[in-house]
Amino acid sequence: MMLTMSVFLFGCAHNAKENDVESFITAHVEKIRPMEKEAALASWNAAISGKPEDYDKVSELTLKVRQVYSNPQEFAFLKDVKESGQVRNAILARQLDVLYNSYLETQIEPELLKKIIDLGTEIEKNFSTFRGTIEGKKVTDNEIKEILKTQTDSRKRSQAWLASKQVGAIVADDIIRLVKLRNQAARKLGFDNYHTLSLATAEQDVKELDKIFDELYELTNEPFAKLKADLDSILAAKYDVAVTELMPWHYHDPFFQETPMVYDLDLDAYYEDKDVKELATEFYAGIGLAVESILANSDLYEREGKNPHAFCTDIDREGDVRILCNLKNNESWMETILHELGHAVYDKYHEPQVPYLLREPAHIFTTEAIAMFFGRLSRNPAWMQQMLELSDEQRMEVEKVSGKYAQLKQLIFARWDMVMYNFEKQLYANPEQDLNSLWWQMVEKYQLVKRPQGRNEPDWAAKIHFTIAPCYYHNYMLGELLASQLHHHIVHEILKLESDENVSYIGRRELGEFLRESVFEAGAVYHWNEMIKRATGEPLSPNYFVDQFVNR
Ligand SMILES: [Zn+2]
Prior knowledge:
By secondary structure, this protein is mostly helical. Helices cover about 65% and strands about 5% of the residues. The protein has helices at about 5-10, 15-50, 50-70, 70-85, 90-105, 110-130, 140-150, 155-190, 195-200, 205-240, 270, 275-285, 290-295, 330-350, 365-375, 380-390, 390-430, 435-445, 465-470, 475-495, 510-520, 530-535, 545-550, and strands spanning about 130-135, 135-140, 310-315, 320-325. A two-stranded antiparallel sheet has the order 1-2. Strands 3-4 form a two-stranded antiparallel sheet. α2 packs antiparallel against α3 (about 50-70). The longest helix has about 40 residues, at about 390-430. It is globular and about 75 Å long. About 35% of the residues are buried. It binds zinc ion. Zinc ion binds next to α14 and α15.
């Protein structure tokens, strides 16, 4: 453990308010700790069994935890001590902040909360049961995606795209009602709207985020325009239309959030006769982060009824960290297992002396950043060559397109995330405005995609995230930015290299050591931006992302 943190953890004598807070925390942790562990285990069991009764147990236990945090008297106590300004001991103040935020977001009065949850569930159900139609025939989301990936006939593409937006008209009014209900709840808690409440409880500041997103916008404007012009000319040729005639349906997914597959890059072939689990274990061992104990508790392969996705969970904040995967030996699962193990080592290596309430990542996006940092390696030519024993020719094959592809992928996502962040901010600020137009203004401004002439439909509402994961999307971008900032710092300051060319990180124990000491151990002892400053010498900045993916 770092010396600075030891000093931080063991402060001096407490005043009366501090003693009160300390007693509160002790009692709270004693109560919440077994409940959280039980809920985490139940959720794990449900994910691997898929049984409805297991999911019922999860809901029941989650509700029980929630009830603890919704206690109004306890919240009043926390608010009072927080506002008194008397809690000066840093580690107590930090726990107080974390507790206060957890209580704050659950202070919505039960009746209103029920309305919000019920309406959210209703909309989600509509999303999962609604099927768009093409010429009167129902189509699934997968069929729509397939058409947008492969079809060359513009008319058929436009039909598929339109079908993907039909759900918007079904759910839009309900989403607006949901936004208003959420705003109502936020105002009762003293916030302008739900967006500002959400950011506040996540320890994020609108001005700070605006600044980061504005900078990113400026820095990516020109390069994105150029890259998109290249892409457009390829697409126009492929679909036999003029560049000026390209419409939203000429991109390869309904929102132009993914990279159209126009540069041939099939990395699966390099992974098919390898074992991605073995590769990941070996790689992490080489940088000094042991993942065997994590993998021993994990559930890695496909099974009937099991959750088909991937996630990482910290069961007890005592080292029982698990990942769920459905591994196959291909590039995408290589990325996924590296990603999930990134989350897992962050959780595993929290310093045990850090108080329970702070034994978690500094922020949801900082753990995402670590996961992304490692996940990116599955396409890194230097990493692939060494791990997969590729010949120089094979490596050159990968190199020819992987850099271009990474750049395209990151820039397209960045511009799309700007749409989501800025639209959502305005959605909550004024849900009465002309949202259909607002959406297309954003899409035109950030993604440089044209609004179809005369189009006035709630195309924004077809994005499920406004319903199920409100005010969260910006965290994906912040994670990418931090992953690049860490990469830059590690290459130049830890490995002392001139550039990141040929950096594979394989066998670099300094990497594991740095991450453990500067990021993982402290958990949430520091506010996320303080942690980033301490680790890299400056607060979160978009410059390194731009460095890595734009100015190449
Ligand atoms: Zn993740």
